[in-house]
Amino acid sequence: MSEPRFEDLLRKVIDGESHDVAAIEEAMEKDESLLAEYLDQVELDAMLEWEFGSEDAGQAELIPIHQPKRKIVGTFAKAAAFILPVALAFYLGIQKGQHTQPSSTPAAVAVLIDSEDCVWEKKPAAQRSFGASFAAGETLRIRSGIARFAMWGKAGVAIVGPAEIELVSREEISVRYGSVSAFAPDEAIGFKVTTPDVEIVDLGTHFGASVAQDGTTDVHVFEGEISVQSKGSEEAGELITTGQARRYTSVGDSKSVISIDPERFAEPPALEQLLAIATPNAAPRKSDSAKSKLDAPGILAAQRFTGAEAELSAPQNGSGFADQPWWAKPVFTSPIPRVESHSGGASAGGFLLVRGRDKAEPFVANRLHRKLDTELPRTFYFALRANYRGHDDDDFFALWIDSNAREGASHAEGPSLGIREGRYFARVDVAHAASAGEVVDSEEFTIAGRYIWNAEENRSEIALWVNPQDPQSQPDAVCDGPVTKKLPRDFRFLGLRIGQYTEVSDRLSVHGLATGTSLESVLTAVHP
Amino acid sequence: MARFSSEIPADTDARWARYVAGIAKAQPGLRSFLRTLLPCPGDADDVLQETNLILWQKREEYDSTRDFGPWARRIAYFQTLAHLKKRSRSRESRFSEEMAESLAVECERRADALEDRIQALRTCLDKLPGDERELVEARYGTGASVKVMAGEIGRSADALSMHLYRVRQKLAECISKSLRGGEMEMKGGEG
Of A133, B7, B27, B33, which sits with the fewest C-beta atoms within 10 Å of its C-beta? Predict the structure, then answer.
């Protein structure tokens, strides 16, 4: 009988039809060239299983992100997909090994991803910081402030203290008192919030529920639809939809229509927050090509933000800046690294996150600035690529150029570029602004300005481009004004400030900013 | 903003979240690594579970300035050795420790390019003729065994198994070709 062929031995083991591994070993020892074939076949088998998600049933349910054609709904759903690997690790490594499970690692149902001025009852704050995991059955007692959680069941939750909430499961929380807002994308339909008197089932939405000490429950639906059922009632749940609000009173078991009030609730977690926690080691992308592009002709100073941790702190980052790093307010500016899903489709991150103003801050909220290597000429271009989440018409921010970088300065007397009153603007000073376009919430934009300081005529002029497609294009708006004594005597600093009416939950994602000697140079610098 | 400071995501507290995410991210690579050392279906998954648990237990020992991949594979390797030593399975169904070691060394050599290979695999899958792509999807998308599949489509299990082997061979060739192509492109761009 002739010896079986290597490929027959191998395919049978791969298919599970044979367990004769020793025969494979013997063949590979005789002929080392078979090793490569072995590695290729086995690795491909593993990769295909992974790619098509047909591992053991227990794992398969936890890895929907590996199914390439999965429908992803909304940005939050994407975030949920990214955060899933974390849940996956918990479940593969910890929950599934329950018989040997160390007592210190109970199955997590939620993770704390953000808090604002949060004061916890009892437990020391250190245990309640970013990334802390919470197990089923844990009760959260918050005296004041806001805490945001990602539920492993894919919903996001924000709690405003004073509040007492029990984490029942990945799909359910129970509110004894306090205010909770939840966001549940399609995948999280069925997410449940129970209060002493009612049971709220999320049907794919953003809603808020607040429970008073006496048990009165107010329910507000900001988007989508929920079903509310009074406990112990035989009736079917009441459907409440976008823009509606109800009050359920335990005394007399009554309900009434109330007016909707988003102010009473905190914003549920933002996409970036979910991403940040799901990203190990914040691996920076190779930026050699980006760097060389920043040395292109006409660029005076530029930086593209990729979310690398050292982006703000390393003095050599960017191009055309003095040999010192960015000054940045740490709580309000954070690099958000880029993350991609395993299926290769969705990706997010790779920018600098700048938060809105906290009410406890001074009105003038500067977020970051940096000194330029050489002061700008009297005619220069500048540009910014970014997007703004949580935009409303009283939000303001500006990329400013000035002779100083004092923290409390408004930088209103020099040239700046940004958004104001729902539009993009470029201005020579606070009194002379050109504006164009309309700001769309969460939509990426590129704005560019050209500043000309005409000393002979004692005037300065600014031109504004909004999302220019062509470096030869005409500006969308132009404005000029007299040069006054208040004009900065030189342009040595560049920075970013946020307006006084922005909310701390607002998020300006900055992809790149630049100054240069032509429109083309600054557009090249801010685009990947 | 002193009162904010206690709420800043402190490194130490974010560390475990990052570590857990590291475990999650390492899964495809670890599984592929373990399949190589333990080719019988099921064995690799058992050891992967154990490895994940050990990774979690040893979290304090992890030096976060180092790459996670090699650290995880080292633990997986030792778990494999422990598994190979178990006498509950027949000698025929496992590699010798020496072979496991040389395979582990080979895997380590290939590990860096795994991400690229997965990317290339997606492109190569798209290049497969329709019927072969369907075959792969039917086999790996449903998790059906070759035997069951063969019964359903009225082919012999042997022929189907051989066909799948050829398709994997084709994909492997396509992947290594596209990676070589990628390298050349890069060199051209740099030069």
Answer: A133
| A86/B24 CB distance under 8 A | yes
ipTM over 0.90: no
Tell me which residue in A11, A25, A115 faces B99 most closely, judged by beta carbons: A25
Q: Measured between beta carbons, which residues in chain A are less than 8 angstroms from residue B157?
A: 15, 17
Residue B142 and residue B47: Cα distance in Å, rounded? 23
Number of neighbours of residue B46 by Cβ within 10 angstroms: 14
Q: What is the largest CA-CA distance in chain A?
A: 102
For the record, the structure tokens of A447 come out as 């704005």
| A108-264 classified as CATH 2.60.120.1440 | yes
Question: Under 8 Å CB-to-CB from A3, ≥6 apart: which residues?
Answer: none
Same domain, yes or no: B146 and B97: no
One-letter amino acid at A419 equals I
Q: Which CATH class is domain A280-526?
A: mainly beta
Q: Please give the structure tokens belonging to residue A464.
A: 């504004």
Q: The domain that contains B183 carries what CATH number?
A: 1.10.10.10
Phi, psi (deg, nearest 5) at residue B119:
-60, -45
CA angle A377, A383, A386 (to 5 degrees): 155
Q: Domain check: are B134 and B183 in the same one?
A: yes
How many CB atoms lie under 10 A from the CB of residue A321? 20
Can you give the residue range of the structural domain that contains B82? 11-112
Q: Which residues contact B87 (CB under 8 A, 6 or more apart)?
A: none
To the nearest whole Å, the CA of B163 is away from the closest chain A CA by 10
Q: In tens digits, what is the pLDDT along chain B, a chain of 191 residues?
A: 322 233 334 455 466 777 777 787 788 889 899 999 999 877 888 888 888 888 888 888 888 788 888 889 989 998 898 888 875 567 788 899 889 999 998 898 888 788 888 889 988 998 999 889 989 988 887 778 898 888 888 889 999 999 999 999 999 999 999 888 754 443 333 32
